[in-house]
Amino acid sequence: MDEEKVITCKSLSKKFGDFYAVNEITFDVNKGEIFGFLGANGAGKTTAMRMLCGLSFPSSGEATVAGFDVYKQQEFIKKNIGYMSQKFSLYENLSILENIEFFGGVYGLDRKEIKERSGLLIQTLGLEKEAKKMVGELPLGWKQKLAFSVAIFHRPKIVFLDEPTGGVDPVTRRQFWDMIYEAAATGITIFVTTHYMDEAEYCNRISIMVDGKVEALDSPSNLKSKFSVHSMDDVFYQLARGASRSAD
After folding, report:
1. Most confident of the following: 48-62, 87-101, 168-182
2. Between the CA of residue 191 and those of 2, 38, 46, 125, 238, what are the distances in Å?
3. Is the pLDDT of residue 10 over 80?
4. Alpha carbons 122 and 170: distance in angstroms, whole number
5. Hey, how many other C-beta atoms are within 10 angstroms of the C-beta on 54?
6. Where are its TM segments located (predicted)?
7. Counts of helices then strands in the chain (DSSP H, E)
8. 159-177, pLDDT tens digit by residue?
9. Which of 96, 134, 169, 203 is least enclosed by beta carbons within 10 angstroms?
10. Domain made up of 5-84+156-247: CATH architecture
11. Strand partners, 12
Protein backbone atom coordinates (compact mmCIF):
# COMPACT_ATOMS: atom_id res chain seq x y z
CA MET A 1 0.00 0.00 0.00
CA ASP A 2 1.43 3.34 -1.14
CA GLU A 3 1.37 6.48 1.01
CA GLU A 4 0.27 8.56 -1.98
CA LYS A 5 -3.14 10.08 -1.23
CA VAL A 6 -5.67 9.35 -3.98
CA ILE A 7 -8.71 10.63 -2.06
CA THR A 8 -8.65 13.57 0.34
CA CYS A 9 -11.62 14.98 2.23
CA LYS A 10 -11.56 17.95 4.58
CA SER A 11 -14.75 19.05 6.34
CA LEU A 12 -16.82 17.84 3.38
CA SER A 13 -20.56 18.44 3.81
CA LYS A 14 -23.80 18.01 1.90
CA LYS A 15 -26.86 19.89 3.10
CA PHE A 16 -30.48 19.52 2.00
CA GLY A 17 -32.41 22.45 3.43
CA ASP A 18 -31.63 22.40 7.14
CA PHE A 19 -30.60 18.73 7.10
CA TYR A 20 -26.95 17.64 6.87
CA ALA A 21 -26.79 14.28 5.06
CA VAL A 22 -22.99 14.50 5.32
CA ASN A 23 -21.59 16.67 8.10
CA GLU A 24 -17.95 17.78 7.83
CA ILE A 25 -16.29 14.44 7.13
CA THR A 26 -12.49 14.36 7.00
CA PHE A 27 -10.30 11.46 5.85
CA ASP A 28 -7.63 10.42 3.31
CA VAL A 29 -7.33 7.22 1.30
CA ASN A 30 -3.96 5.85 0.16
CA LYS A 31 -3.08 4.42 -3.24
CA GLY A 32 -3.69 0.67 -3.35
CA GLU A 33 -5.63 0.71 -0.09
CA ILE A 34 -8.82 -1.25 0.54
CA PHE A 35 -10.87 1.36 2.37
CA GLY A 36 -14.14 0.30 3.98
CA PHE A 37 -16.88 2.92 4.24
CA LEU A 38 -19.42 1.66 6.73
CA GLY A 39 -22.63 2.91 8.26
CA ALA A 40 -26.29 2.07 8.74
CA ASN A 41 -28.92 2.95 6.15
CA GLY A 42 -29.34 6.74 6.17
CA ALA A 43 -25.90 7.37 7.70
CA GLY A 44 -24.76 9.35 4.65
CA LYS A 45 -22.59 6.78 2.87
CA THR A 46 -24.27 7.00 -0.53
CA THR A 47 -24.43 10.80 -0.45
CA ALA A 48 -20.72 10.97 0.37
CA MET A 49 -19.86 8.49 -2.37
CA ARG A 50 -21.88 10.44 -4.95
CA MET A 51 -19.85 13.57 -4.16
CA LEU A 52 -16.57 11.68 -4.48
CA CYS A 53 -17.66 10.14 -7.80
CA GLY A 54 -18.39 13.58 -9.25
CA LEU A 55 -22.15 13.01 -9.36
CA SER A 56 -23.16 15.59 -6.75
CA PHE A 57 -21.74 18.95 -5.68
CA PRO A 58 -20.80 19.35 -1.99
CA SER A 59 -22.36 22.16 0.04
CA SER A 60 -19.04 22.99 1.70
CA GLY A 61 -15.60 21.62 2.50
CA GLU A 62 -12.82 20.33 0.25
CA ALA A 63 -12.11 17.06 -1.54
CA THR A 64 -9.96 15.67 -4.32
CA VAL A 65 -10.28 12.30 -6.07
CA ALA A 66 -7.38 10.99 -8.18
CA GLY A 67 -5.90 14.48 -7.86
CA PHE A 68 -8.98 16.28 -9.21
CA ASP A 69 -11.21 18.77 -7.41
CA VAL A 70 -14.79 17.61 -6.72
CA TYR A 71 -16.16 21.08 -7.49
CA LYS A 72 -14.32 21.98 -10.68
CA GLN A 73 -13.07 18.76 -12.26
CA GLN A 74 -15.90 16.25 -12.01
CA GLU A 75 -15.49 15.01 -15.60
CA PHE A 76 -11.82 14.21 -14.98
CA ILE A 77 -12.80 12.32 -11.84
CA LYS A 78 -15.27 10.19 -13.79
CA LYS A 79 -12.57 9.21 -16.30
CA ASN A 80 -10.22 8.03 -13.54
CA ILE A 81 -12.60 5.93 -11.47
CA GLY A 82 -14.64 2.76 -11.82
CA TYR A 83 -18.00 2.14 -10.17
CA MET A 84 -19.98 -0.95 -9.27
CA SER A 85 -23.23 -1.16 -7.34
CA GLN A 86 -25.31 -4.04 -6.01
CA LYS A 87 -27.43 -3.75 -9.19
CA PHE A 88 -24.28 -4.34 -11.29
CA SER A 89 -25.17 -1.95 -14.20
CA LEU A 90 -24.78 -4.72 -16.78
CA TYR A 91 -27.04 -5.07 -19.84
CA GLU A 92 -28.77 -8.43 -19.49
CA ASN A 93 -29.91 -8.52 -23.14
CA LEU A 94 -26.30 -8.24 -24.36
CA SER A 95 -23.73 -11.04 -24.33
CA ILE A 96 -20.76 -11.15 -21.99
CA LEU A 97 -18.43 -10.01 -24.78
CA GLU A 98 -20.84 -7.28 -25.93
CA ASN A 99 -21.06 -5.89 -22.39
CA ILE A 100 -17.28 -5.78 -22.08
CA GLU A 101 -16.87 -4.10 -25.47
CA PHE A 102 -19.66 -1.61 -24.76
CA PHE A 103 -18.19 -0.45 -21.45
CA GLY A 104 -14.72 -0.33 -22.98
CA GLY A 105 -16.10 2.20 -25.45
CA VAL A 106 -17.84 4.15 -22.69
CA TYR A 107 -14.54 4.39 -20.84
CA GLY A 108 -12.86 5.81 -23.93
CA LEU A 109 -10.65 2.88 -24.95
CA ASP A 110 -9.84 2.47 -28.63
CA ARG A 111 -10.89 -0.60 -30.62
CA LYS A 112 -7.47 -2.24 -30.44
CA GLU A 113 -7.30 -1.87 -26.65
CA ILE A 114 -10.84 -3.16 -26.26
CA LYS A 115 -10.14 -6.24 -28.40
CA GLU A 116 -6.90 -7.08 -26.58
CA ARG A 117 -8.27 -6.50 -23.09
CA SER A 118 -11.58 -8.27 -23.83
CA GLY A 119 -9.79 -11.45 -24.89
CA LEU A 120 -7.53 -11.36 -21.85
CA LEU A 121 -10.43 -10.71 -19.47
CA ILE A 122 -12.59 -13.54 -20.83
CA GLN A 123 -9.61 -15.88 -20.59
CA THR A 124 -8.86 -14.77 -17.03
CA LEU A 125 -12.47 -15.36 -15.98
CA GLY A 126 -12.53 -18.74 -17.74
CA LEU A 127 -15.51 -17.75 -19.87
CA GLU A 128 -14.19 -18.58 -23.34
CA LYS A 129 -17.09 -20.96 -24.07
CA GLU A 130 -19.69 -18.57 -22.61
CA ALA A 131 -18.47 -15.32 -24.21
CA LYS A 132 -21.53 -15.09 -26.47
CA LYS A 133 -24.02 -16.06 -23.74
CA MET A 134 -26.52 -13.41 -22.66
CA VAL A 135 -25.64 -11.85 -19.31
CA GLY A 136 -29.23 -12.42 -18.18
CA GLU A 137 -28.55 -16.17 -18.30
CA LEU A 138 -25.60 -15.99 -15.90
CA PRO A 139 -25.81 -16.99 -12.21
CA LEU A 140 -25.70 -14.07 -9.77
CA GLY A 141 -22.14 -14.81 -8.68
CA TRP A 142 -20.85 -14.65 -12.27
CA LYS A 143 -22.71 -11.40 -12.90
CA GLN A 144 -20.97 -10.00 -9.83
CA LYS A 145 -17.52 -11.05 -11.04
CA LEU A 146 -18.19 -9.69 -14.53
CA ALA A 147 -19.50 -6.37 -13.19
CA PHE A 148 -16.36 -5.89 -11.10
CA SER A 149 -14.13 -6.82 -14.04
CA VAL A 150 -15.95 -4.31 -16.24
CA ALA A 151 -15.62 -1.61 -13.55
CA ILE A 152 -11.82 -1.92 -13.65
CA PHE A 153 -11.56 -2.73 -17.38
CA HIS A 154 -10.10 0.72 -18.15
CA ARG A 155 -7.58 0.33 -15.28
CA PRO A 156 -8.84 3.24 -13.17
CA LYS A 157 -6.94 4.69 -10.24
CA ILE A 158 -9.89 4.08 -7.90
CA VAL A 159 -12.92 1.81 -8.00
CA PHE A 160 -15.99 2.60 -5.89
CA LEU A 161 -17.96 -0.48 -4.82
CA ASP A 162 -21.39 0.22 -3.36
CA GLU A 163 -22.67 -2.86 -1.47
CA PRO A 164 -21.16 -5.12 -4.16
CA THR A 165 -21.76 -8.48 -2.44
CA GLY A 166 -25.41 -8.12 -1.49
CA GLY A 167 -27.51 -11.21 -2.17
CA VAL A 168 -24.74 -13.71 -2.89
CA ASP A 169 -23.70 -16.71 -0.80
CA PRO A 170 -20.71 -16.62 1.60
CA VAL A 171 -18.45 -18.70 -0.69
CA THR A 172 -19.07 -16.38 -3.64
CA ARG A 173 -18.49 -13.34 -1.41
CA ARG A 174 -15.11 -14.77 -0.38
CA GLN A 175 -14.17 -15.38 -4.02
CA PHE A 176 -15.18 -11.83 -4.88
CA TRP A 177 -12.90 -10.48 -2.17
CA ASP A 178 -10.06 -12.45 -3.71
CA MET A 179 -10.66 -10.40 -6.88
CA ILE A 180 -10.59 -7.20 -4.81
CA TYR A 181 -7.22 -8.17 -3.32
CA GLU A 182 -5.83 -8.91 -6.78
CA ALA A 183 -6.96 -5.50 -8.06
CA ALA A 184 -5.49 -3.72 -5.04
CA ALA A 185 -2.18 -5.52 -5.63
CA THR A 186 -1.98 -3.85 -9.06
CA GLY A 187 -2.27 -0.40 -7.44
CA ILE A 188 -6.01 0.17 -7.85
CA THR A 189 -7.52 1.77 -4.76
CA ILE A 190 -10.69 0.10 -3.49
CA PHE A 191 -13.38 2.23 -1.82
CA VAL A 192 -16.10 -0.14 -0.65
CA THR A 193 -19.34 0.11 1.31
CA THR A 194 -20.77 -3.01 2.88
CA HIS A 195 -23.26 -3.96 5.57
CA TYR A 196 -21.51 -7.29 6.20
CA MET A 197 -19.37 -6.68 9.26
CA ASP A 198 -17.20 -9.74 8.57
CA GLU A 199 -16.17 -8.08 5.28
CA ALA A 200 -14.97 -5.06 7.22
CA GLU A 201 -12.20 -7.32 8.52
CA TYR A 202 -10.83 -7.61 4.97
CA CYS A 203 -10.18 -3.85 4.70
CA ASN A 204 -6.90 -2.09 5.47
CA ARG A 205 -8.80 0.70 7.20
CA ILE A 206 -12.41 1.45 7.98
CA SER A 207 -14.43 4.63 8.33
CA ILE A 208 -17.71 4.30 10.23
CA MET A 209 -20.36 6.95 9.64
CA VAL A 210 -23.16 7.68 12.09
CA ASP A 211 -25.78 10.33 11.31
CA GLY A 212 -23.67 11.97 8.61
CA LYS A 213 -20.43 12.10 10.62
CA VAL A 214 -17.31 9.95 10.65
CA GLU A 215 -17.32 8.60 14.20
CA ALA A 216 -14.43 6.13 13.85
CA LEU A 217 -11.52 5.67 11.45
CA ASP A 218 -8.74 3.10 11.80
CA SER A 219 -7.73 -0.46 10.97
CA PRO A 220 -10.13 -3.23 12.08
CA SER A 221 -7.68 -4.52 14.67
CA ASN A 222 -7.09 -1.06 16.16
CA LEU A 223 -10.81 -0.33 16.33
CA LYS A 224 -11.53 -3.61 18.10
CA SER A 225 -8.73 -2.88 20.55
CA LYS A 226 -9.94 0.68 21.15
CA PHE A 227 -13.48 -0.47 21.96
CA SER A 228 -12.28 -3.60 23.82
CA VAL A 229 -14.37 -5.96 21.68
CA HIS A 230 -13.75 -9.01 19.52
CA SER A 231 -15.72 -8.20 16.36
CA MET A 232 -16.57 -5.29 14.10
CA ASP A 233 -20.25 -5.97 14.84
CA ASP A 234 -19.56 -4.96 18.44
CA VAL A 235 -17.66 -1.82 17.38
CA PHE A 236 -20.56 -0.77 15.18
CA TYR A 237 -23.08 -1.51 17.94
CA GLN A 238 -21.21 0.60 20.48
CA LEU A 239 -20.97 3.56 18.10
CA ALA A 240 -24.66 3.33 17.18
CA ARG A 241 -25.67 3.05 20.84
CA GLY A 242 -23.49 6.03 21.73
CA ALA A 243 -25.13 8.12 19.01
CA SER A 244 -28.57 7.07 20.21
CA ARG A 245 -27.78 8.16 23.77
CA SER A 246 -26.47 11.51 22.55
CA ALA A 247 -29.71 12.07 20.62
CA ASP A 248 -31.72 11.35 23.78
Report:
1. 48-62
2. 15, 10, 12, 23, 24
3. yes
4. 24
5. 21
6. none
7. 9, 10
8. 999 888 877 788 888 889 9
9. 169
10. 3-Layer(aba) Sandwich (3.40)
11. 25
